[in-house]
């Protein structure tokens, strides 16, 4: 057997959530759109650069108006206004281009990230989904991915633009008046210190909001998907209370974040406008003494406003990056998850299996509890095997190992002599068909559900599969036939109709190995007869594992395996096992004899009950 690759342990989530390098991982998703991003960045820089011209032109406009009081020569004033309007027009054009290009990049990145995350989720094993709530996963897929939108689009370009504006404004401030510049620069450290200190708290609060919303979404998702159970137990009040607790937690976390954001806004506003008031006071004294012209003071004030506004913008961008770090931490937790079903580096070829399944000393444990114990079994291709035994004996676990929903803990499971772990998962599962007790249909049409395993199947092939599954008649009775929408999880169809569509789906897939997990146990007699006839067609020529409580299915099997406590305790035909006695006969006496009498329209006398045999010691 080939060596198994070791799984790489996932990074520490707590550390990853605080790692700014996550933003570089986000930017990797923008690489395919770098041309549009670059053009958007250039447009942003040009728009920001033109913004540095505004204060100078406004200052000239003031001097042209007030220093020539009484003069009729408006040439300089007119020229300045026209130039100002031209700068406004060009700056607006670049601003519009920047807005469109960067929004396109951000939207594309978010779409790609959602597709990547969803595709990755589909590769993870049932063990992962057993440990995570669906609502939490969908919250990360939607809300958290949406949170990083601004970072992968506008925020980065704005960061560059604000840095250019800050550097340019500070330089022009010094050139305009170095004395006033000293007052301006004294305020900046206060603003930056406030932004950094409070920004860290906003980041932690944002993470708490996202986690609380995910928990609330998970609660709502469970209640909605199981609404019939909720209503049948009149548990609406309990579910409202549970969801309300989650919403309240999200509300409290959001209020905490809003409180810190309010502190940030208030302090930043005080430092910014308080500083400008001091600058205006000192600059007014400079004008009164003749050291500055009114236009120069106005120019300086505009540059000071730009510096203050830029620092405020940078603070807002810092908060956006902090929120994005919290969201990206949750996203990359999923993207860094490794499936516990590793794919082989060089998969063994598998196109059309014969169907021989061999268990060699297989043991399987889940959460430290042994479910299967040293189980050995060889099933030839084309054989129909029935699995019977008490609840918890390991029947469903055994058949779940065949399509590698789980990997064996010890031993080897082979298909046609090759270890299952040497096949690509996609190739292996293409050979396996599953018809479970609770059939899951997707919220599309009947035809789409039948075609689920073979999207390229023709309408004639779909109809042939439906006829073989005894489904064509009821399908064509619908007004829209194969275009009838089945509703979420097939809620618009009866149990027997859903099962026959599932059988048609399996027939169209044409697997070599078939797993029937109590496929008729929840049906009425009429539906069972139709489904059973369809199942008999489906089983022809395929290696079939049947978990059943119905005697008709068990008696027609080529072989019956009796399981108890994770082991096969009896193996043989119906007649052989009855003659041998033991657990199978006990099950037959307790469950099957009355079914036989009912099937023959008899009124059976109570069958003598043989005390159950003592289970073998494990």
From TrEMBL:
Q: Which InterPro entries match?
A: AAA+_ATPase, ABC1_TM_dom, ABC1_TM_sf, ABC_transporter-like_ATP-bd, ABC_transporter-like_CS, P-loop_NTPase, Type_1_exporter
PROSITE patterns the record matches: ABC_TM1F, ABC_TRANSPORTER_1, ABC_TRANSPORTER_2
- What residue stretches are annotated with the ABC transmembrane type-1 domain? 38-323
Pfam hit, one: ABC_membrane
> According to the UniProt record, where is the region Disordered?
598-618
Provide the membrane topology annotation.
Multi-pass membrane protein
Occurrences of domain ABC transporter (ranges): 357-590
List where Pro residues composition bias occurs: 605-618
Q: Which Gene3D superfamilies match?
A: ABC transporter type 1, transmembrane domain, P-loop containing nucleotide triphosphate hydrolases
Q: Recorded GO terms, molecular function? A: ABC-type oligopeptide transporter activity; ATP binding; ATP hydrolysis activity
Membrane-spanning residues: 35-62, 82-105, 148-174, 180-200, 262-283
- Official protein name in the record: ABC transporter ATP-binding protein
Q: Which domain of life is it from?
A: Bacteria
Q: Where in the cell is it found?
A: Cell membrane
GO term, biological process aspect, one:
oligopeptide export from mitochondrion
What species is this protein from? Deinococcus ficus
What cellular component GO annotations does this protein have? plasma membrane
Q: Is Nucleotide-binding given among the entry's keywords?
A: yes
